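Help! Submission page says 'invalid entity' but I think these are all valid:
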Amino acid sequence: DEEGKLKDEL
Amino acid sequence: MNIFRLTGDLSHLAAIIILLLKIWKSRSCAGISGKSQILFALVFTTRYLDLFTSFISLYNTCMKLIYIGCAYATVYLIYAKFRATYDGNHDSFRVEFLVVPVGGLSVLINHDFSPLEILWTFSIYLESVAILPQLFMISKTGEAETITTHYLFCLGLYRALYLFNWIWRFYFEGFFDMIAIVAGVVQTVLYCDFFYLYVTKVLKGKKLSLPA
């Protein structure tokens, strides 16, 4: 899902 | 990855290294809030639980390991190795007033009511206020060592750069995460008066001292 994308941030 | 996020991560890494070296080289944690460092260790622990379940990149994994390692090493130096130099009297911020509301909020406002997501949300909210014990301690002692102000500047700058990163990602990738953005704005705003003192005093070679 789109929000999961930001989990690539520290 | 974009330039704002990269410089943000490097600024964060610099802050963590500066603090660790300051304590290690001076063999003293005077003026450092151990409570803030415990909160940061908690932030990294609850945020990086996916360290072993999802691989994003070598950079991502390495940085997470470095952050967690340095955070716990710093807590160890403060509360064990150089415990005698820990200024507990001035490090008196009641962290339960931070952890409890942040814990409640992360259960109420999150993207997904799953353990990993709630812990990630908890870490985002907690990080935005984790520096308060340190800022409170400086207001109580009325001063801060110059190296400590450089640590705080890098730490404050990192999330400010992340705000630009989120603007960049919204514009170019159409992604944004309201929880991270709101917490990041709060976190950066908390540094504003410190930023003002840092620019007007420390950068002019003066010592950072607050009107007691």
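Support: the input was valid. A stray whitespace character was the problem, and the output above is from the cleaned input. Chain B touches chain A through 22 residues (CB under 8 Å).
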